[in-house]
Amino acid sequence: MSQSDLALAEWTPIKKQVFRFFFIFFILYIFLTPNDIVPYSYFFHRFYLQPCINLIAWLAKDVVHIAGPATKFINGTTDTAFGYLTILFIFSVALIGSVIWMLVDRPARNYNRLYSALIVILRYYLAITWVAYGSMKIIQLQFPSLTPITLLQTYGNSTPRGLAWTFMGYSAGYNYFIGCTEYIIGLFLFFRKTSTLGSLLAFCAIANIMAFNFCFDVDVKLLSTMLMVMTLFLLSKYRVKLINFFWLNKIAYSEDMPSYSFKKKWKNTTLLIFKFALILYVIFFDLYGDIALAKQNGASINKPLLYGIYNVKTFIRNKDTIIPLTTDTARWNKLIVSSIPGSASVMLMNDSLKYFVFDLDTSKKRIVMHNEKDSLDKYTFSYNKPKADILVIRGKWHNDSLEIKLQKYDLNKFLLVNRSFRWIVDHQVKIKR
Predict the structure, then answer these.
(1) 382 and 237 in a common domain
(2) Closest CA relative to residue 306, chosen from 337, 284, 278, 349
(3) Same-domain pairing of 326 and 260
């Protein structure tokens, strides 16, 4: 069928109605669930997003009679009650809107131009998303490397999401592999000639991500599901070609809709320049931004002076040496200084953790700690290091006078850290439990 025949071909009523629904649905989803990956989209959000949020909250509270946290907007990607209400709102508007559209536009033979425009919008939206998430994995921002806290935490006391993040954060190489794969998918989706391959790869990748999110209770199940729906919509364009190639062993003829262009050359040239400017911006500025973030809180940042795990050797409270009993909920067991500047934790004898903002003044040899949730819960200690691996701190803790001697633990003693890559394994490995 020639391009002119395709342009004149009449769609079935069902096909037209399905298109009307998905056109409204996808456009509303992109606008109402911002995930901050589209360049400068935040500039436009301020003009319309808050009124839409207020409308959804009002409908939830006064029409559907849902109150409480369900009406609280947090962000556009996590699985909050408001996120599900937003999807319900978008679905309802798309359903009603498609019916109204059908009633006022019955004579339309097809929506080839709008369909082509929607395909381009979805391709670029998905491409930008894949490049953004691929970049975060390449720089290892999404899944940070192992920290002292994760090394101490047991499997049983970790959340499913925490376990998954530890698994992903362990291997920089695996992050590079996944990140480069997602990056390449994004690049393929930017261009029409490679969009079929990009969509197929995207389907495989997003299926794995969906399984990961659902099975490990990662709170972006809504986002990954919507990315899958968009990917399937893109693949539906090539459904006959894919069925012929993969199942029927037939020749897979091209099914591309006619590519529309402006009559004036300068408009097409301007559009082409804008396209490549956008692609270059997304490619380079995503990496540039992630590299800048990595310098602030990535794996390569300079560790704080006292970084590491310190085991309590002696704990003197009000001049009395307190023996280490697991029933003691006041005695320290470990001090864990995070790689993130200004963050530390105290593990008590019952293995519970208390998190603190940790300020270190090296000139005055002083440590100031205050509870993350209560800045008034504040403690000041003096410290000294008689040996490289010994730390002694003195100060007031609540109403008690403390003197604590701690010894730094060598992180390389953890099996997860010291086990290196092996090509050949000639013996049975005994798993530590």
Answers:
(1) no
(2) 337
(3) no
Range of the domain at 314: 308-411
User: What pLDDT shows up at residue 2?
Assistant: 45
274 pLDDT higher than 80: yes
Which distant-in-sequence residues (6+ apart) come within 8 Å of 152 by Cβ? 309, 334, 336, 347
**Pair 312, 215 in one domain:** no
One domain for residues 36 and 121 = yes
116 and 15 in a common domain: yes
Q: Residue 145 is inside which H or E element, if any?
A: none
CA dist 208 and 212 (Å) reads 6
The H or E element spanning position 289 is helix 265-297
Pairing label, strands 343-348, 390-397: unpaired
Q: Check whether residue 312 and residue 285 sit in a common domain.
A: no
The total number of structural domains that make up the chain: 2
Q: Identity (one letter) of the amino acid at 299?
A: A
DSSP 102-126: HHH-TT----HHHHHHHHHHHHHHH
The DSSP symbol for 61 reads I
pTM for the whole thing? 0.85
51 has a pLDDT exceeding 90: no
How would you label 330-354 residue by residue, b for 16+ Cβ within 10 Å and e otherwise?
ebbbbbbbbbbbebbbbbbbeeeee
- HSE-up (13 A, CA, CB side) for residue 230: 29
Running DSSP on this structure, what letter comes out for residue 373?
A: T
Residue 289 resides in a domain:
yes
